[in-house]
């Protein structure tokens, strides 16, 4: 096999494995928490759930630029192979966490997921850079499009496999990663090679502390902003959250000054002078902000509301939620390689811009659905969303990576992926804050009235209406009826017919559905604005540009090429040199 195809197949395997891991855990959380014997509605348990979901992303957001710089210095192949080995170790450790281990098991789950994140981060950063190194400018779009498909295919496999495997044994959710990880590790060791020698230079310790520390503090601030504080449903007024944001911003500002003064910076800020790199990353960031929490909110919508209303048992909702998400993945898989091929031929701007516009349209259509929607309309909207995301992903990635000089591709890829992960973390906090704030206003009255309508005593109806909104939302996601945790002495006072209604599949979904959909719609409106901003930034990214070779603008109206402008390379390797 020609070496470039060996690189593509191996990095595709790595992407497949990493993306399976992310969605398989998301869709299997209800079963995992039941296996660990954790009640997420109990006091203090909500933060455990947040860390299981967001700990992986926080590690990625913090370390990716550092990993990219290390790869530039010591070799991408070595660091990529190390990523496979670390990911394998993390998967094995996760698979041996004991059943019924409670909070101890949850802490082990969080810790070992972070180990996986270190391995996954090394894979993410280096896979894109390795492909860019191995393929020429006129082939990278197709290669990166195929690689993007591996991530989405893995997401699709994870959604469906998570439902199937978790229903048998939750440990299988992590065991399934091990064969992929072992195969990828062996293949990397024996088949991948270092194409170019790397100059060993000192690591920028101060820059790492500034960037890593700042991103950690900001990520922690956004995470704990979701935790109720005193009488508030959210934690935005928590002094520790405010202090975390302030300290994080100070460190990031310090990072900028550090990088302007050190001889060998962690990240060369002059890369942002390259128009395609700058606008491409900003568009990617806005895309991540727009879609980061939406997928999770849609899964809550399916698992906690729609599926139980239609008679699907809570033990089966993870599998069926995965099945219902298939059109979104199918749209991405269909358009991913097409977007890459078109980018190679015509440039990225038109297709990345069109992709973001399509995503914005699909999000608007979601706002028009009731909480108990028509299934075919829902599936067609998800398909449209996947098509838009697929049309954006490969062109955006290709434009950013083509704009980078060879010696900065690792750090540049790390920065690109950092923007993506930070965007998703912020998105989770912002959209959940919007949804839960509105949810908090509407939910108590809805729960109270629904409880009275089935014949519950006013005292019990009032108790049910006091369920914390964040706990109610995550209880819905995990398939738990909060009323089931009430003491037996209280439940015994309820007439049998009312008790049957209270414990039914439909009581809780029909109680929270109207409140949830209002909060979701407002979140979607913000996501639409982010997607439109991403489209504008993509349109501003300039014509076709390859570092050291120049760029070609294609006039879309007449389909005729405008005169090609070629930059004459000089001996100056500065990433900002010759930028357009």
Tags for this model:
mainly alpha, 580 residues, Growth Hormone, Chain: A, 3 domains, 21 helices, two-stranded antiparallel sheet
Give a summary of the structure in a few sentences.
By secondary structure, this protein is an all-alpha fold. It has helices at residues 3-36, 46-74, 76-95, 102-134, 140-168, 172-175, 177-191, 205-224, 239-259, 275-291, 294-309, 317-324, 326-346, 349-367, 375-402, 409-453, 458-465, 469-478, 488-491, 496-502, 507-539; strands at 554-555, 560-561.
The top-level CATH class of the largest domain is: Mainly Alpha
The helical percent reads: over 70%
**Number of helices in the DSSP assignment:** 21
Which strand-content bin applies to the residues?
A: under 5%
Provide the CATH superfamily of the largest domain.
Answer: MFS general substrate transporter like domains
Query: Radius of gyration in whole Å, from Cα?
Result: 24 Å
CATH architecture label name of the largest domain: Up-down Bundle
Instruction: Report how far the terminal alpha carbons are from each other.
Output: 37 Å
Secondary-structure element series = HHHHHHHHHHHHHHHHHHHHHEE
Strand order of the largest sheet: 1-2
> Could you tell me the mean pLDDT?
79
* Poorly predicted segments: 550-580
